[in-house]
Amino acid sequence: MNNILIIGGGAAGMLAAVMAAREGAKVTLFEKNEKLGKKLFITGKGRCNLTNACDVEDLFTAVKTNAKFMYSSFYSFTNQDVIDFFENLGMRTKVERGDRVFPLSNHSSDVIRTLEEEMRRLGVEVHLNTAVRKIEAHEGRFACIVLANGKKVKGDGCIVATGGISYPSTGSTGDGYRFAKELGMKVTECMPSLVPMETEEPWVPTLQGLSLRNVNATIRDGKKKLYDDFGEMLFTHYGVSGPLMLSASSVVGKKLSDHPLTLEIDLKPALSAEQLDQRVLRDFEENQNRQFKNAIHKLFPAKLLPVMIELSGIDPEKKVNVISKEERAHFVSLIKKLPVTLTGLRGYKEAIITKGGVSVKEIDPGTMESKKIPGVYFVGEVLDLDAVTGGFNLQIAWSTACAAARACAYQKI
């Protein structure tokens, strides 16, 4: 029976513990927090978007860094396998907009409880409030872990499931990167991802709390288009957030760390410029004796109205029947391409995930084992893998954890 040590009791760590124990291994899990699944508890606004019910092929499109590396593990433990795993343990699931999968109860605590109960049933030994200081190798392969109190714990294999650096209050403080470096492995540059972005315009903070649904966002670096998608976004006191902007950050983050980028918001993507011009003209004709500021209230949310009036350059007191064709054309253009200057990313405290991590070039994609130090496996967010929002990052965690657990349980000692 293989003796497997797991560092980290988040999504990847707990699933790895279950899968390894199911294969007959003796499993001991070490978690430095006072309870398991602290980050899992807050994911999906506390509802836990645990995977995405898309076709398996679409998982690769959602992964923005090193998608090809995930080929073996995604097919070995698919998104449907994840759903079946929880359903078979009695936790019902549901599929919502965008194929997002949630617990039927809407409580992330049910995901954690389901994993904890299965670990308990399988006899997994869990040590809470137990930090790991380092991983030691002997003659080029895994030997033991050293706890914060100096105690050494020997094992046949070690799975590192320590997460990244995002939401450090949950215990994600980059320990896994340190372990990897100490073992002579490469860690790529890290940055916050799936994170809100900061903006330059003084009018943005006046829209704090305004959510725009069904808009199209395009981000450009000069004339080059970097990102284009449709969905929901949110204005904040510092810039922009919401699903559309969080996903955009995973695509444009590296460029944005170098220099500002331009965000163009199409407030009426269902209408062409010509159709929108006709709509505006119709509103003007219905209100031909009214002032501009009182004739366009049907076009925008109330909070956005004064901003659009100011940016249009049209005198708010001007009667709409004397607004020129050129003024109207500029107004229509503004609605189709509301420009915002993106200046930077928010920090790790607000980031859902970390972009960057242990280089996958040094990891076996079928087993998640280190190519440099046999017996040490890396899973989940600690790896240089990241995806857009929608349950895809948790799918990476589940699939890599399963691959490592099965390989570790069967490795020849």
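Above is the first protein from milestone M3; the second protein from the same milestone is given next.
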Amino acid sequence: MLNIAGELNLSETAFLQSSEQSGSFSIRYFSPKKEIPLCGHATLASAKVVSELYRLRNVSFVNVQNITLATSVSEGEITMAFPAYDTVPAEAPPMLLTALGIEAVENVLFNQETNILMLEIADPEVLVDLAPDFGGAAASP
């Protein structure tokens, strides 16, 4: 799956496998570099494809973390019950901030389930003007 995702070179590629339960599928997501636990856009796209192929209105996906993502398709609209995760205050590693080119952050939160560090930046222009060193960011703790 990782090799295929690397060949496609999209931000995320979803892979589905049907389960014994009707309307339920396992889903795994891969970037060109690694497996990722959750991707909302890829889940919504998968729901559209599966609902059309199997003529289903309700489709559920179970990800690698065993989290069920329920989707519903009605009149061309797709809705999904996206999981809500808790966050805890955290500190951004200085090496990461340097690699991203960010001098200051307003708030830093961490989510353990997804291993995601969220950085709040005060000025949207800072975000627009970023020229990150992705290698340096990946090497930061």
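Note on the second protein: The helical segments are 2-8, 40-54, 94-100, 124-128, 134-139.
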